[in-house]
Sequence to fold (273 residues):
Amino acid sequence: MTLTALFNQFMIFSFLGWIYETIYTTVTSKHWQNRGFLFGPICPIYGLGVIGANMIFEVLLPNRLGIVNPPWWKVFLICAVGSAILEYSISWLLETCFHAMWWDYSNVPLNIKGRICLPATCGFGLAGIVFVKWIFPFIDANIPYLPTLASQFVALLFAMLLGADIAVTVASLSTLISRLTAMQESFDIRMSNSVERIQNAPDEFRERLASLSLPQKHQLISISKFRNVKYTSVATSLKESLIAFKDKAMDAAEAIAERASAVRNKEEDSNES
Fold:
């Protein structure tokens, strides 16, 4: 398989991983969540995991070690350990760069620093069995590869979109962190001054929330935990306010839809009579 085909598969499985993450978190939290580090609809860690498994089981083991069709327990162990290494490394890297965690297993049993946990690792190991034993063979047997020129064009388009997304995400995160730090410092000053100034804080708080850009609001919601004490409290408050605002907007939209449906039904009944 060429590097172009691998990159295209990486983007496709990153998108499918985003769909899974978004559906899972939306169902469990009972409100819409656009999951992922990036602003666009992809979760690169899933793409990396799938491509890594593909390279290990379809290239490295058969060609270098002569192992073809390994037993399911070996697939499980390799995928589980590999996913744990990948997930821990990415979590550590993001936390080191941005002082934030995009996923947090602190409340899950048998976790390591909230970055990985045994239940999730076992889940990824089982998913690896499904991919290696069924999905990869199905793709090889039934899905034809694009012609070279078409594959390169698609890869170029994917690369441009991914590059733009990374640039927007990093820029919005840097700005968001700076603004959170400034807001926390402003709040601390108010706390040390007087009750009268503290009472005016909610209005300014709402103004700051409204002034955040769409990518910044996305990052604020998708981040599970902030590690930097300089802005942890204000970031958590902003996130809770943003989620509450979205929930109220959804409730209002549902109420409007119900009223519109009731009006239509009433008009239909009057027309029939």
Notes: Residues 161-256 form one domain. The chain is about 80% helix and 5% strand. The mean pLDDT is 79.
